[in-house]
Structure formats: structure tokens, C-alpha cells
Design a protein that fits this description.
Number of helices: 3
Strand order of the largest sheet: 1-2-3-4
Distance between the termini: 23 Å
Order of helices and strands: EEEEHEHHEE
Amino acid sequence: MAGPAQTTPAAASGTPAQPWRLTTPSGQSEFLAYRDAAANPPALVVQVGKTELRYHLRCLDDLATMLQARGDWVLLGSADEQKPVAPDTVEAWARAPDNPVGGWYGLKKGLRGRFANYVPPVLELLGLAELEHNAKNNRIRGNHAP
């Protein structure tokens, strides 16, 4: 398992002016992410090339809480919005009707998927989770308080 290839919190503040530079769990792609608390609703903004994805900002706290409750590794299961998802994965949770937002965390129709590809690296950067960095079938788990 390789370590994360991303900026440190001290190097960027996660704002539009100083976004975090991250890599997907597999290390295959780079992307930028930042918090936009002024958006309606507040959003985690992910910039992948020229494509902008937006997720409810609360996804960071909600995913960390879910992972802590699970207490074990959870498969990421990343998938585009139009594709089916494997059950019991982060991606399935991020679109489930019984999650804290009652469905999709993604805010842009047509670009609501891939949650498990872009949100977990932010959680890892913030120290809220441990993330695997294999070529595929990566997992995440919440960090436990000491």
C-alpha cells in the first residue's frame, strides 16, 4: 500500500484561492478540491481537469461519522452516476436514501457519482480516515481517537 500523494494541510487551506491538490486513491489522477461554505448549499468542490463536481459540504463529517460507526474497512466502489454500484460500499452509501441527506451527496445532475473517488482523499488529508492506495479495490476506515 503506497502512501498518499497529496499536499499537506499546511501547504493549502482548502479554499478557492488555495485548493488542496490531491490524487485519486489509485494514484492515477490528480484533482483539486476546496470548501465553498458560501455556496447554496455549502459544497465541497472538486476540479478534475475542466470538469467541476460539487458535493454537499457536510459529506466530510457525515462520511467520517459513518466510518467511525462501522469501525472497519469499507470498500470504496467508485462509479459514475449512470452506473450501478456495488452494495456495502462508500459509493452506495453516498447515494442511499437512508444516508443523512436522504440520497445523493452529489449536487450536479449527471455528475453526482464518483463520490468514492474524490471525497475519501480529502478525508485522509484532514486526518479523519485511513485510505488504501492500491491500483484498484481500495478501502477506507475512520481514524479512531487515541
